[in-house]
Amino acid sequence: MNRATSTSTSTSTSTSGTRTRTRTAVTTATTTGTATRVLAAPLGLLTLLALSACGTSTAATRAAALPPLSTAAGATTTATTAGSTAPSPAGSPSAAPGTATATAMPPATAPASPPATAKPLSGRTVVIDPGHNPGNFDHATQINQQVDVGNGRKECDTTGTETNAGYTEAAYTLDVSHRIRDILQGLGATVLLTQDGDRPWGPCVDERAAIGNNAHADAAISVHGDGGPASGSGFHVIMPAKVVAGKADNSAIVDPSHRLGLLVRDSFHTATGEPYADYVADQGLDTRSDLGGLNLSTVPKVFIECGNMRNSGDAQRMTDPQWRQRAAQGIANAFTAFLSGRSVPTTG
Description:
The protein is α/β, with parallel strands linked by helices.
């Protein structure tokens, strides 16, 4: 650190009649690094008396005003001596004579980032079961084998139905399941499919239930298209009846599954405009005890028959990608409501 010191003296004398008044000041400038301080101090009383006695007449000398110096980022120092003032920044008040002032500008701060908002289904797990498998048509032996569903035995799986134009139920259910998955994942949920067209056939109905159970899913749904009489139309939701038999015990999930079923029915109807089935179920709701996927489930689960693929009107809607997107949105809305703890809507 370099330090330099300089001293100057200014004396002023004025005479009025027989009285003499003398003011003498010593100005000391001290420089340390880049910061300069100017000090003005009056001379001692004895010195003033001595000068007055000698009748000294000296022209008034003023200490030169030092220019403003930057002492730190964002701070400005202004030095003044008696009778003189260094220029002040435009718009700021002038310093009083004989004072030193410092104006500190606060450092700029970036605006705080808003806190991240958690997605509504973060931490939730949903299992979607696309009914049937496109490869089942080529594996009749495997899908016809019998499996235990608790209160009886049933075929491992079936080929499913199709429209008169050949659009298969397996293609429909996989497409809608993909759409539901995308919506729910966007809301933060973990979504598992029981099959994604990535296996030659199946899985069997007991394995489909086990996938949801092993995942400890918060809820599950099996997506289907019905193959009813051509004269019948509309959709319906299937909920589990209580089954405690053999390896089946779904008693713990019957009530929550019924709440989920009501939400799915109402939300699907609102999103698609599809009427309740007029050939099966009651007001779009059915309860069954013969489906292995429901009997063996230990997590809340329902089936939905999205329409009757053998009916020309339903078939036209179900083959429309935009309608399928609405169908997926309706089901996803129901799961969001169910997993968010919303109350079951009033139904008529």
